[in-house]
Amino acid sequence: MEPEIVWYAQSAFRIEVDGLRIYLDPYHLPPGQPPADVLMISHDHGDHLSGEDIAQIRNADTVVFASPPAAKKLAPPVTTLAPGQSARHGGLTVRAVPAYNVNKFRSPGVPFHPREGQHVGFVFEIGGLRFYFAGDTDVIPEMAEIGPVDYAFLPVSGTYVMTAEEAAEAVRQIRPRVVIPMHYGSIVGSVEDAHRLARLVPEGVEVRILTPISR
Ligand SMILES: [Zn+2]
């Protein structure tokens, strides 16, 4: 079974899999998007936690998983997942994994996404498939524990997150079947970053460059 995956912009996706509709960091959604069964929010920066986009697709039945800083800015009920914590919803299991910078700094010594900020990525399993949504991160040692996965959503733009070259190193550690480059085309980075990643991954890994339906 293959999931249906829609890319909106930045790190915003809709995944339809095994009868469940999952949104990841919704941002720049066009009007008229269908409601979320599950919503995952990696961290509280404006290109990942967007109140108006969440309001469009969240309803009373939406199950929300969020990192601690994101959960603080969301209306309850929210299941807060700090790095290492996991939860279950029907046939879906979700584990929050660390996401932080090691070499991208806002000012000397101050990373954009500090490790102690408890931003997360999500590893989730449903319908016999395993997904890794990296959030905003560099290549970090914890990635060695994540794979293999069927689908990995990896940032490639550099500046605030991994570059394409660093994402290729992440791919070697995570061993995904399919990589979906993200976090380019809106604020920094371009599709050329995604193409660079495609040229750098080991043979046998599919890099699926999606067309965003918004900006
Ligand atoms: Zn971001």
UniProtKB/TrEMBL annotation:
Entries under InterPro entries matching the protein: Metallo-B-lactamas, RibonucZ/Hydroxyglut_hydro, UPF0173_UPF0282_UlaG_hydrolase
Chain ranges of the Metallo-beta-lactamase domain: 9-183
Pfam families: Lactamase_B_3 (PF13483)
Cross-referenced SUPFAM superfamilies: Metallo-hydrolase/oxidoreductase
Annotated SMART domains: Lactamase_B
Protein name, entry field: MBL fold metallo-hydrolase
Species this protein is from: Thermalbibacter longus
